[in-house]
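Hello Y.,

Per our agreement to keep a running log of every chain we model this quarter, I'm adding this entry. I've kept the format consistent with earlier entries: sequence first, then predicted structure.
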Amino acid sequence: MKTEVLIAVRLDLNQNIDEKTKESAQRFFKEQVNFLGIKTSIVRKIAKQHFKDIKDEDKKDIFELCRKLLKSEYGEEAFIAFEWAYYIRKQYEPSDFHVFERWIRKYVNNWAKCDTFCNHTVGSYIEQYPECLRDVKKWAKSENRWFRRASAVSLIIPARKGRFLKEIFEISDLLLNDKDDLVQKGYGWLLKEASKNHQVEVYEYIAKNKKEMPRTALRYALEKMPEDFRRKAMEK
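Predicted structure for the entry above:
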């Protein structure tokens, strides 16, 4: 059954390849990326369709299917792997953190994979097991740019719900002077999402740190703030 599902998934993907979509995908990345060239809406549909065939499988077997998809390095197959991992979020266990950490280390090599995986799959895991945040904070010190971005974007969904403000500020502190623009955008985005429920606290954090924050992070963080807040924060 497991091999048949992968064959069926890849057959459906190959039947939906569009060269224009493939050409346009590369424009969003500075590094070289591998995409078949399939619209996200179609990939999501394929993921849902074939998950029906494996939904009753053991979590370990589903994770193994995900790993095999990730090994291909195609963005569309990674998207399906991360979707499937998110679909079984009610089955997460504390030990799954090490699985997810390994996937980031081995298979995440661009911002799209990082955000797709971390926003929903890792974010959902953190909501269930917030004690893992001590390890997520360690990612912010990694030499791997995707771990550093992951430390921020894994908290995007919880931040929208008003959760983990203390940890959000702690991670932002660790990333504050990061030289990588994709990391800057990541923690700026996190602060922006946190500001929806904690506008004053986030603004005070930004005002305190604005002289150190890179302008890229600052612009992202202020995006949802009132105009007068944005103007004051951008002043030198």
